[in-house]
Amino acid sequence: MITAAVSEMLLATNQNTLQRFHVDSPLTEEANKVIHKLPSLRDLWVVIDGPGSLPTLALPDLATIDVEYNDDHRWLQGFRGATFGKLTSVTFRSDSSSIGDFLEAFESVALTTSIMATLTEFQFCTSSQWRPNCRSLLPFTQLKKLDIMFSCIHDCSSTIDDNIVTDLARAMPKPEILRFGEAPCKIPTGVTAKGLAALAHYCLHLALLCIHFQVASLDSPEIPQVASGGESTMPREDCALTILEVGEIYVPEGSRSTVSLALLRIFPRLNYIKYASPGWAWLHIESGFPTTYPSLK
User: Fold this and answer.
1) What is the pLDDT of residues 117-138, one digit of tens each?
2) What is the widest separation between alpha-carbon atoms in the chain?
3) 211 in the Ramachandran plot: left (φ > 0), alpha (ψ -120 to 50) or beta?
4) Is the separation of the CB atoms in 171 and 138 below 8 Å?
5) Running DSSP on this structure, what letter comes out for residue 89?
6) Would the CA dihedral through 18, 22, 28, 34 be positive or negative?
7) Domain coordinates of the chain in residue numbers?
């Protein structure tokens, strides 16, 4: 009933002037063909119901798109060769059990469009376990916000290591927000101090970071160095990072002071830590999220 009503409303509007469509409901086949070629549409939230594919998108004024789906991602073919000129933000949401190689599939179709030069925000949200291949994001060099959400409820889903995060940092010098996972879990996995130092060196605008990292690698007074152009370079003191999300990452009591010092040497402007593990509560860094976010838009 909702699908029919929303679709009829869409078909009854002036399709030449409609600029924003946000409806949490699938559409009928007839309306689905219309929504993807509205000449003035700037902001679209669409729900894909079932394994069908989208029509090829022809939305020259589209700036943001939010796609919710719960089946496979064959519908991504609607992006192939699509007409975009102003698309800056894409968000995908799915709790499907077959997320699989979504990032590779999106990269494949995105390379056939102009969005590689315009896209500044990419988000993928799922409450399921998922091990994304983040190397597929390397061509998106203009990103300012990269948000890859996945769950570690039953087992750690993070596969981000030093090599991947260093390659991402080199390819994307502009990010202000980086999130890999809903919150880091207690399993000691992820990047080491070397990967964190790479982010501090290459991503000077980075203000918020959520990533799995290995606390044991910070249990040293030495600041890790980053290879750059054949030379070893120290982390940059002007990295803008002020907010770090550490989730349930465990800090042994005997390592707390060393870990605190190492983090502040890598990220000298660090002001806020969001944590779930009490091991971070004692640190001389303000905890929890502030009401305003320094350096964030």
Assistant:
1) 999 999 999 888 888 889 999 9
2) 67
3) beta
4) yes
5) E
6) positive
7) 1-134, 159-297
